Amino acid sequence: MQRRQFVTIAPRLAAGLAAPALVRHAFAQDAGISSKSLTIGCSASLTGPLAGFGRDIKQGAEAALAQINARGGIHGRMVQLQILDDGYVPQRTTENVQQMISQGSAFALMSCVGTPNNAGILPMIEDAGIPYVAPFTGASSLRKGARNVFHVRASYTDEVRRLVQRLAGMGLKDIGVVYLDNAYGREMLEDSTRFLADQGLKPLVQVALATDGKNLSDVLAKVGQARPAAVLLATAGAVSVELVRGLKTNNPGVLMAGLSVTLTSEGLKQLGDAGSGLALTMVMPDPTRAKTALVRDYQAAMRARGVQEFNLGTLESYTNTRVLAEGLERAGADPTRSKLRTALAGIRNLDLGGLVIDYSGQAPYVGSRFVDMGVLNGAGRFVG
């Protein structure tokens, strides 16, 4: 190539090489947002063992967004949800989030489901600098200071502590633990063992249950041989239904206590009378009792969508959407991801009407410490 040709071409070449960086910068700021709309991304299990959670998230978020958009949206923008199914498979979650980030289809993320699933995407979210509100997991191992992640629910550690304290407070000493054979379940086993030790106890029996339930008969046999007075259920999703049924059949009179994610709303329906007496932690107020403004607003939003059944999953998703919407309001009429992140971090003592959200101003950001406990009746409703 002659020098004159090179000199002529070089400025055009340099401009061409520089353009992608400029495009990437503008793209990063404007992804998922226009003058009229703003898109929130989510990867959840709409199929598979945790499908009930995914469907609750979709229904609760859409009810909240319909309510928000009916009032004019946020700074004139209609807010919409893009939810992709991952079947509770961590690799699919990673692919879904990577797709949303690379295609620029979402301004922020909300409520991706599962402990192992979130473990895979959090590094990507930090690298991309995309705000992420309310991961649908309470794993303490995932609350280590990420600057883009804003948890809403209390931690599983808080839930397990409450369960163990309740069981030990009843004078029970022979307590078994059945845990899901994945990252979530193993972390819950560690928490359970630690809090039992604080009470001078150790698990009478501890058994891992496959996520697809293929070893359920073996699990039930081991628990039956140990004959515990109570079983702590560190399981989640569809597999918990047959586990509860089996324990109740094989171990009449055994007390069972589980976490907020042990059963989906669909699972509670499937259990029917078999779920009577099961104790579960709750990280949201009782969705069926309109004692608080939050629950009343939620019920109104659901009814406006033609839904007359209320459950903890849809209430949690509704609440998560409200928290994200508060951040977007505070980020102003010309939001960027940086502005949204700052706005969320600045939330202090936000009373949603019976549930207070308070971020400390520094990571890890955890908005709520609310943990309650209820006992189910045969209709799948909490009686105390």
From TrEMBL:
Q: List residues of the Leucine-binding protein domain.
A: 38-351
Q: Which domain of life is it from?
A: Bacteria
A single GO BP: amino acid transport
User: What InterPro entries does the record point to?
Assistant: Leu-bd, Leu_Ile_Val-bd, Peripla_BP_I
Identify the CDD domains for this entry. Answer: PBP1_ABC_ligand_binding-like (cd06326)
Give the family per the record: Belongs to the leucine-binding protein family.
Protein name (record): ABC transporter substrate-binding protein
To which species is this protein native? Acidovorax temperans
